[in-house]
Write a structure and sequence with these properties.
The chain has two domains: 49 residues; 34 residues. Strands 1-2 form a two-stranded antiparallel ribbon. It is mostly helical and 103 residues long. It contains four helices and two strands.
Length: 103
Amino acid sequence: MIDLEALSLKELKKLQKSVEAAIADFEDRERRKALAEVEAFARERGLTPADLAALTTRRTRRPAAPKYANPANPSQTWTGRGRRPRWVDAALASGKSLDDLTI
């Protein structure tokens, strides 16, 4: 066991760097080991790495067309997705409905 109290600041920092490097190396070895296990498991079932990669592709959304516009400033629009803009909240608070803001 290392007596940390007996080490100087320089020695402690050197030890810290060594420990961080050892941790990173350990994590890298574990990742490679897990990946090899997954690839072996997939090969046993007739899957290729390309098949596995296809599982992780993300579906991207197309940009949505604006559905609502601010009557006071038509350049301010909203698609209806995500958080409502302040001008929509203000219009709804004043008694208007989303149908009133439809483009």
